[in-house]
Amino acid sequence: MGLLSDPVRRRALARLVLRLNAPLCVLSYLAGLAWFLALAFPPLTQRTYMSENAMGSTMVEEQFAGGDRARAFARDFAAQRRKSGALPVAWLERTMRSVGLEVYAQRFSRRLPFPDETHERYMVSGTNVYGILRAPRAASTESLVLTVPCGSDSTNSQAVGLLLALAAHFRGQIYWAKDIIFLVTEHDLLGTEAWLEAYHDVNVTGMQSSPLQGRAGAIQAAVALELSSDMVTSLDVAVEGLNGQLPNLDLLNLFQTFCQKGGLLCTLQGKLQPQDWTSLDGPLQGLQMLLLMVLRQASGRPHGSHGLFLRYRVEALTLRGINSFRQYKYDLVAVGKALEGMFRKLNHLLERLHQSFFFYLLPALSRFVSIGLYMPAAGFLLLVLGLKALELWMQLHEAGVGLEEPGGSPGPSVPLPPAQGVGLASLVAPLLISQAMGLALYVLPVLGQHVAAQHFPVAEAEAVVLTLLAIYAAGLALPHNTHRVVSTQAPDRGWMALKLVALIYLALQLGCITLTNFSLGFLLAATMVPAAALAKPHGSRTLYAALLVLTSPAATLLGSLFLWRELQEAPLSLAEGWQLFLAALAQGVLEHHTYGALLFPLLSLGLYPCWLLFWNVLFWK
Amino acid sequence: MAAPLALVLVVAVTVRAALFRSSLAEFISERVEVVSPLSSWKRVVEGLSLLDLGVSPYAGAVFHETPLIIYLFHFLIDYAELVFMITDALTAIALYFAIQDFNKVLFKKQKLLLELDQYAPDVAELIRTPMEMRYIPLKVALFYLLNPYTVLSCVAKSTCAINNTLIAFFILTTIKGSAFLSAIFLALATYQSLYPLTLFVPGLLYLLQRQYIPVKMKSKAFWIFSWEYAMMYVGSLVVIVCLSFFLLSSWDFIPAVYGFMEHPIFFMFIQIAIIAIFKSYPTVGDVALYMAFFPVWNHLYRFLRNIFVLTCIIIVCSLLFPVLWHLWIYAGSANSNFFYAITLTFNVGQILLISDYFYAFLRREYYLTHGLYLTAKDGTEAMLVLK
């Protein structure tokens, strides 16, 4: 306690902080960025290894040979589908029953909050079909899931064929200790969400679905399969799930083991694995893949059916078969063998996957960065906010000591310090107004879409997006109006107090976000922290204003879209980028309402009001 | 049984004597963990010398002991080390006999329950035998005497040891069943530091249980006995306080020993905060109660030293509670240690906050009487430090 209570040492510390503040902040920010960029390099990345004992040392000999059968099923399915236009439920039920599974179907329907332009649907109704392979001598307490999402745009018929062939093969084996559920969903992710909600007996997203007749116990792991051609050149694996949740690393290690065993070519983020880690090439490629993963995780979208399983603590992966121009191709048997191997190993699990990491970043399929090594990057960035807040506090306190405090009104229920020399009235108004704008941004677009569509010649989806942008831009005009409402009592100190509160608010939000979704937290911190630290009403206002606008949440979203496409080596032109941006906004709002994605509420209710506070500080009179 | 106890006593006394003669004695008596402003020997000596000079020992607001302690040491100041060693020995002996009696009562009760077939049939290995209970009193005495904490307190001559003796005798007399003596010792212990007041209820309950008086509202014997015990306790307390008054011919000792008589509401605020921090299952509702008082101490704001850091700690912890809960229960990745760490940090923040307010209060009082700008003797600016 000596440091905090001894006046001599306190004064020395205060002087140190005030004098060295700017260099410390810059150093900390650069350290954070440098640490992040260094994550792809060898001391900070480690080779992956299988942590779960039950999946490690068992030898499996795959015997799947149903390639022809799979292709036949696939052709039938495609034909039936073309004939009926939707999922051929009766055919699926019949085929699954003939293979020997217990078959059930589930109807679901949902009215989306506004029409989805990307998938062209509004009133969605469909049927999921699933068959359960009961383990011969077990008590049906645990199960594994193999799911194939069938949407209108991707028929996935080969995947369905492979699923049925695998089911037939598995049915003939006696070593299953867990039940296996073979699930075919309609309208891809919407169907998966309906099935999961009904299976776990919850209703999180307002989906109407019929209750499930057959269950198979707690789901231990799930694999989602997407194949659209008879031959594949590589298998792409997707791990990022809803809200940036990731499956246990052991599941990925499992997949990689079987890829290596079967000689399959596996890709991550659609790119081949870097081989040479000793020179600079490997780590640079790894950095590219790391950035892609960070961008995908930050978006919080479920990049495949597996993303929705993660919320229910079911470890899941999505495997996509890619057919590109390469000489060596694999047929369905190879994919089937890999899946068979994975399921046999998962069969050995004694308890849920918990040994390996839940929070990691992947520079390559065989390398990972654990949370203990990547967190300091975010810590350094948030330290800047802390230092700035401390400096402001000391400046305020030095000026306020020795003065008589005017009787300020008692603060809100949060334990803010009692009235400083500024009076809290001048702080409460900007806070409330910014929060109200955030609330408007969250609620109005979907609520007012019909009104907007009536008065302007736009479709509902466009109306939502345009309302979003309009409210966002309207926030920029606020400071000119807030000052008419608030009577400025103290001239100079007001903006300091407001900035202090805004810095703490931003640091708290970013801290909480980083704990659950590191990529989103880091991305937002990297863009918003410099602008937030620099904002002040003196000096070159236009420069700071430009910086603040360029680092606002919406601009960050636009920038990351461009960066993402740039990293995928398919760069966008400005017009395309803008179109993609509008589509991303619509998807974000939609996914919040249909799956419970949190990016939209976080940005509109949390970060946008905070950003508005800094905008207020910048234009303080 | 006397021989092993005597042996333990001899060993304990030897250890203490050795430490008293060594150079560690000075060092230990300065340590914050062992002595507090309320129990430090230096302050007893200070009060005694003031008394010798004819000044009231409570004049300098340094001395916080009771008048009975002053008079005890007034006569025994030359034998101070011996007094503390005897105190420890007396505590150990009191505990020894108390636990011996207690074990007898326990064993009798167990026998009764066995005969009444109150226990399940297959719990033979859980039944306690006299054999295993034989050495417990000795172990208790051993634990107390040879505990490093006790040794350190004795060597530092902290008056906490005297309080321990009084409480030990209270326990002994309660277990033996003598209500009168139990009330007297409890009054003496409460007189020295207020907290043993909370031992009144357990003491009363044990005495009732011993006489097989049921604890029911309707039972007349219950009310009669409770009233007697309470009267004995309050009577003894009153007698002791009046005696103290006559010893020093003033009531000065009351504010010095029990403190904050002029500011009972502030005292109440601190007490509520301490209850909220240290209770067994705290929730944020307990915290909310004492936080409502903050506007009352608005005027102390300028003397608070760490309010920024503390406010940040408390806000951050409050926000991290749900996040870490989510990570532990729903994301399945964190574990209870994270949540526990945040609880600890929250409590540390609260404790620092309360001590900050305490310091601010005392500082303002000091400034009010001594002026706002302090100068040392040579005219330079002086600084106020809380010791």
TrEMBL record, chain A:
A Pfam family of this chain: Gaa1
Signal peptide boundaries: none
Primary location recorded for the protein, binned into one broad class: endoplasmic reticulum
Key word Acetylation present: no
Any one biological process term the GO annotation gives: attachment of GPI anchor to protein
Location(s) in or outside the cell: Endoplasmic reticulum membrane
Alphabetical keyword list: Disulfide bond, Endoplasmic reticulum, Glycoprotein, GPI-anchor biosynthesis, Membrane, Transmembrane, Transmembrane helix
GO cellular component terms, A-Z: GPI-anchor transamidase complex
Residue ranges crossing the lipid bilayer per the database entry: 20-41, 357-385, 422-444, 456-478, 498-531, 543-564, 598-620
Biochemical pathway: Glycolipid biosynthesis; glycosylphosphatidylinositol-anchor biosynthesis
Membrane topology, record value: Multi-pass membrane protein
Task performed by this protein: Component of the glycosylphosphatidylinositol-anchor (GPI-anchor) transamidase (GPI-T) complex that catalyzes the formation of the linkage between a proprotein and a GPI-anchor and participates in GPI anchored protein biosynthesis. Binds GPI-anchor.
Subunit details: Heteropentamer. Part of the GPI-anchor transamidase complex, consisting of PIGK, PIGT, PIGS, PIGU and GAA1. Interacts with PIGK.
Name this polypeptide is given: GPI-anchor transamidase component GPAA1
Origin species: Sapajus apella
Name of the encoding gene: GPAA1
Automatic annotation (TrEMBL), chain B:
Main location (coarse class): endoplasmic reticulum
Sequence intervals crossing the membrane: 68-99, 166-187, 193-209, 230-251, 263-282, 303-325, 337-359
Pathway: Glycolipid biosynthesis; glycosylphosphatidylinositol-anchor biosynthesis
BP GO annotations: attachment of GPI anchor to protein; GPI anchor biosynthetic process
Residue runs in coiled coils: none
InterPro entries: PIG-U
Membrane topology: Multi-pass membrane protein
Signal peptide: 1-17
Pfam families, alphabetized: PIG-U
Family as reported in the entry's similarity comment: Belongs to the PIGU family.
PANTHER family xrefs: GPI TRANSAMIDASE COMPONENT PIG-U, PHOSPHATIDYLINOSITOL GLYCAN ANCHOR BIOSYNTHESIS CLASS U PROTEIN
Name used for this protein in its record: Phosphatidylinositol glycan anchor biosynthesis class U protein isoform X4
Native organism: Sapajus apella
Gene encoding the protein: PIGU
